[in-house]
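Sample entry follows:

:::
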Amino acid sequence: MKILLLRHTATTQSIKRLIRDDCKDFNLSNEGVAQAIALKDKFIDLAGKFKIYVSPAKRCLQTAEIIFPDFIDRFEIASELRELDKGFVNAIKKDPSLKDMTIDGWELKYNNLSDPLARNSYIYPSGESVLMMNSRVAAFFDRIIDKAVDAKIIIISHNGPIRAIITHALGLEHANRLVAIEHGSYSELTRDGHGFVLSKLNAR
Protein backbone atom coordinates (compact mmCIF):
# COMPACT_ATOMS: atom_id res chain seq x y z
CA MET A 1 0.00 0.00 0.00
CA LYS A 2 1.20 3.48 -0.87
CA ILE A 3 -0.28 6.72 0.51
CA LEU A 4 0.73 10.13 -0.82
CA LEU A 5 -0.07 13.09 1.43
CA LEU A 6 -0.13 16.47 -0.32
CA ARG A 7 -0.45 19.78 1.47
CA HIS A 8 -2.28 22.43 -0.54
CA THR A 9 -0.01 24.95 -2.21
CA ALA A 10 0.56 28.60 -1.15
CA THR A 11 -2.48 30.83 -0.67
CA THR A 12 -3.34 34.54 -0.64
CA GLN A 13 -3.47 34.59 3.16
CA SER A 14 -1.46 37.42 4.71
CA ILE A 15 1.81 36.48 6.38
CA LYS A 16 0.46 38.30 9.45
CA ARG A 17 -1.95 35.38 10.04
CA LEU A 18 -4.62 37.39 11.86
CA ILE A 19 -7.12 35.37 13.88
CA ARG A 20 -10.00 37.12 12.10
CA ASP A 21 -8.79 35.52 8.87
CA ASP A 22 -8.29 32.03 10.25
CA CYS A 23 -11.67 30.72 9.11
CA LYS A 24 -11.51 32.31 5.64
CA ASP A 25 -11.30 30.01 2.66
CA PHE A 26 -8.41 31.55 0.74
CA ASN A 27 -7.66 31.03 -2.94
CA LEU A 28 -4.28 29.87 -4.17
CA SER A 29 -1.77 32.63 -4.84
CA ASN A 30 0.17 32.89 -8.09
CA GLU A 31 2.99 31.09 -6.29
CA GLY A 32 0.55 28.40 -5.22
CA VAL A 33 -0.69 27.87 -8.77
CA ALA A 34 2.91 27.48 -9.94
CA GLN A 35 3.60 24.99 -7.15
CA ALA A 36 0.53 22.95 -8.12
CA ILE A 37 1.58 22.91 -11.79
CA ALA A 38 4.99 21.58 -10.74
CA LEU A 39 3.26 18.80 -8.78
CA LYS A 40 1.07 18.02 -11.78
CA ASP A 41 4.18 17.33 -13.85
CA LYS A 42 5.49 15.06 -11.11
CA PHE A 43 2.26 13.07 -10.69
CA ILE A 44 1.09 12.96 -14.29
CA ASP A 45 1.55 9.19 -14.54
CA LEU A 46 -0.03 8.38 -11.17
CA ALA A 47 -3.49 9.92 -11.13
CA GLY A 48 -5.48 7.09 -12.68
CA LYS A 49 -3.94 4.55 -10.33
CA PHE A 50 -4.81 6.29 -7.04
CA LYS A 51 -7.95 6.94 -5.02
CA ILE A 52 -8.00 10.70 -4.35
CA TYR A 53 -9.40 12.18 -1.11
CA VAL A 54 -9.60 15.97 -0.76
CA SER A 55 -10.41 18.40 2.05
CA PRO A 56 -13.45 20.56 1.18
CA ALA A 57 -11.43 23.77 1.63
CA LYS A 58 -11.14 25.84 -1.55
CA ARG A 59 -7.34 25.87 -1.42
CA CYS A 60 -7.24 22.08 -1.35
CA LEU A 61 -9.81 21.68 -4.13
CA GLN A 62 -7.97 24.17 -6.33
CA THR A 63 -4.70 22.34 -5.73
CA ALA A 64 -6.32 19.01 -6.60
CA GLU A 65 -8.01 20.37 -9.71
CA ILE A 66 -4.73 21.72 -11.10
CA ILE A 67 -2.76 18.54 -10.40
CA PHE A 68 -5.46 16.07 -11.49
CA PRO A 69 -7.73 17.94 -13.96
CA ASP A 70 -8.89 14.76 -15.68
CA PHE A 71 -10.06 13.11 -12.46
CA ILE A 72 -12.15 15.83 -10.79
CA ASP A 73 -15.29 13.70 -10.97
CA ARG A 74 -13.47 10.98 -9.03
CA PHE A 75 -12.44 13.14 -6.07
CA GLU A 76 -13.90 12.05 -2.75
CA ILE A 77 -14.46 15.17 -0.65
CA ALA A 78 -13.86 14.36 3.01
CA SER A 79 -14.86 16.85 5.72
CA GLU A 80 -12.69 14.91 8.18
CA LEU A 81 -9.64 16.28 6.34
CA ARG A 82 -10.42 19.93 7.11
CA GLU A 83 -7.93 21.95 9.13
CA LEU A 84 -8.15 22.52 12.90
CA ASP A 85 -11.28 24.53 13.77
CA LYS A 86 -10.18 27.29 16.14
CA GLY A 87 -13.51 29.11 16.31
CA PHE A 88 -11.88 32.56 16.42
CA VAL A 89 -14.88 34.25 14.80
CA ASN A 90 -16.99 33.67 17.91
CA ALA A 91 -14.17 34.86 20.16
CA ILE A 92 -14.01 38.15 18.24
CA LYS A 93 -17.79 38.56 18.45
CA LYS A 94 -17.51 38.35 22.23
CA ASP A 95 -14.47 40.64 22.37
CA PRO A 96 -14.03 42.85 19.26
CA SER A 97 -10.66 44.10 20.56
CA LEU A 98 -9.20 40.75 19.48
CA LYS A 99 -9.72 41.38 15.77
CA ASP A 100 -6.13 42.52 15.14
CA MET A 101 -4.48 39.73 17.14
CA THR A 102 -2.30 37.30 15.24
CA ILE A 103 -2.51 33.53 15.64
CA ASP A 104 1.02 33.56 17.07
CA GLY A 105 -0.07 36.23 19.54
CA TRP A 106 -3.04 34.11 20.61
CA GLU A 107 -0.84 31.07 21.14
CA LEU A 108 1.61 33.10 23.20
CA LYS A 109 -1.13 34.51 25.41
CA TYR A 110 -3.52 31.57 25.80
CA ASN A 111 -1.70 28.37 24.86
CA ASN A 112 1.94 29.00 25.71
CA LEU A 113 2.54 25.70 27.49
CA SER A 114 5.84 23.85 27.51
CA ASP A 115 4.23 20.40 27.59
CA PRO A 116 3.21 19.43 24.00
CA LEU A 117 0.42 17.16 25.25
CA ALA A 118 -1.07 19.98 27.30
CA ARG A 119 -0.90 22.30 24.30
CA ASN A 120 -2.62 19.70 22.15
CA SER A 121 -5.37 19.39 24.78
CA TYR A 122 -6.18 23.11 24.67
CA ILE A 123 -9.67 23.62 23.21
CA TYR A 124 -9.97 26.77 21.11
CA PRO A 125 -12.98 29.04 21.71
CA SER A 126 -16.05 27.49 20.08
CA GLY A 127 -13.65 25.20 18.24
CA GLU A 128 -11.69 22.04 18.90
CA SER A 129 -8.36 20.96 20.33
CA VAL A 130 -5.48 19.48 18.36
CA LEU A 131 -6.27 16.14 20.04
CA MET A 132 -9.88 16.35 18.85
CA MET A 133 -8.74 17.08 15.30
CA ASN A 134 -6.20 14.26 15.45
CA SER A 135 -8.91 11.87 16.59
CA ARG A 136 -11.28 12.65 13.71
CA VAL A 137 -8.46 12.46 11.16
CA ALA A 138 -7.10 9.19 12.57
CA ALA A 139 -10.59 7.62 12.52
CA PHE A 140 -11.00 8.64 8.87
CA PHE A 141 -7.55 7.30 7.97
CA ASP A 142 -8.18 3.95 9.67
CA ARG A 143 -11.52 3.66 7.88
CA ILE A 144 -10.15 4.17 4.38
CA ILE A 145 -7.17 1.91 5.08
CA ASP A 146 -9.45 -0.89 6.29
CA LYS A 147 -11.44 -0.64 3.05
CA ALA A 148 -8.41 -0.77 0.76
CA VAL A 149 -5.78 -3.31 1.78
CA ASP A 150 -3.59 -2.98 -1.32
CA ALA A 151 -4.77 0.38 -2.59
CA LYS A 152 -2.86 3.46 -3.66
CA ILE A 153 -4.23 6.59 -2.04
CA ILE A 154 -3.67 10.32 -2.45
CA ILE A 155 -4.82 12.71 0.29
CA ILE A 156 -4.82 16.46 -0.33
CA SER A 157 -5.24 18.35 2.91
CA HIS A 158 -3.60 20.75 5.39
CA ASN A 159 -0.64 20.85 7.75
CA GLY A 160 -2.57 19.66 10.82
CA PRO A 161 -4.40 16.67 9.30
CA ILE A 162 -1.35 15.46 7.36
CA ARG A 163 0.75 15.72 10.50
CA ALA A 164 -1.94 13.77 12.35
CA ILE A 165 -1.97 11.00 9.73
CA ILE A 166 1.80 10.61 9.72
CA THR A 167 2.19 10.45 13.49
CA HIS A 168 -0.85 8.17 13.86
CA ALA A 169 0.36 5.76 11.18
CA LEU A 170 3.79 5.56 12.81
CA GLY A 171 2.42 5.31 16.36
CA LEU A 172 4.16 8.56 17.30
CA GLU A 173 1.22 10.72 18.35
CA HIS A 174 3.30 12.16 21.21
CA ALA A 175 5.64 13.67 18.58
CA ASN A 176 2.84 15.42 16.70
CA ARG A 177 4.24 18.93 17.14
CA LEU A 178 7.68 17.91 15.94
CA VAL A 179 6.41 17.47 12.38
CA ALA A 180 5.75 20.45 10.09
CA ILE A 181 4.32 20.06 6.59
CA GLU A 182 5.31 22.61 3.96
CA HIS A 183 2.96 24.17 1.38
CA GLY A 184 3.07 22.37 -1.93
CA SER A 185 5.03 19.41 -0.60
CA TYR A 186 4.15 15.74 -0.49
CA SER A 187 4.98 12.99 1.95
CA GLU A 188 4.74 9.24 1.36
CA LEU A 189 3.70 6.40 3.61
CA THR A 190 4.10 2.79 2.57
CA ARG A 191 2.82 -0.27 4.40
CA ASP A 192 4.13 -3.79 4.47
CA GLY A 193 3.56 -6.66 6.89
CA HIS A 194 5.32 -4.77 9.67
CA GLY A 195 3.33 -1.54 9.56
CA PHE A 196 3.81 1.87 8.01
CA VAL A 197 7.08 3.47 6.93
CA LEU A 198 7.53 7.17 6.18
CA SER A 199 9.54 7.01 2.96
CA LYS A 200 9.30 10.72 2.06
CA LEU A 201 8.64 13.91 4.03
CA ASN A 202 8.11 17.36 2.48
CA ALA A 203 9.31 16.16 -0.92
CA ARG A 204 8.89 18.26 -4.07
